[in-house]
Each structure stands twice: as C-alpha cells, then as structure tokens.
Design brief:
The protein is built from two helices and three strands, in the order H-E-E-H-E. It is an alpha+beta fold. A three-stranded antiparallel β-sheet has the order 2-1-3, with helices on one face.
Length: 75
Amino acid sequence: MASTLEMSNSTNIEDRRLELLRTAPLDSWIALSEDETAIVASASTYEEVVRKSENAGVSDPLLIKTPKAWHSIAV
C-alpha cells in the first residue's frame, strides 16, 4: 500500500499535468518537458513543435495534440 506522502506526491503531479493541459493552446501540438512539469513549445504542426522543443534544449519531450475543445466526461 502506498504511503500518504507517495499518494500526495502522485496527486500533486497529476494535478500539475492537468493544469498544464487546461492552459495549453487548443487544437495545437504541445511539447512537455522530460519531467512533464512545463510546456516547452507549442505549434500548429508536429514538425514545428519538434523543432521548437529542440531549440528550447529539450531532447526528449512528450508531444501531445490538444483537442479543439475540452469536454467533460461523466462516469
């Protein structure tokens, strides 16, 4: 079983990632830093975001295509 501290750290990381995604430009490609704590580049094309992230000094970004709009999911 995970300790409270481990669960808290995990939740904090997930919360930070969600906040990054919420603030990311819609209908764009974004590049997250290797530790997934910052958006290092955004662009309208995959090729452009790769180039921008390399120029920012990030060699292994997490690349994500953001949707045109965020929708709530009911479970």
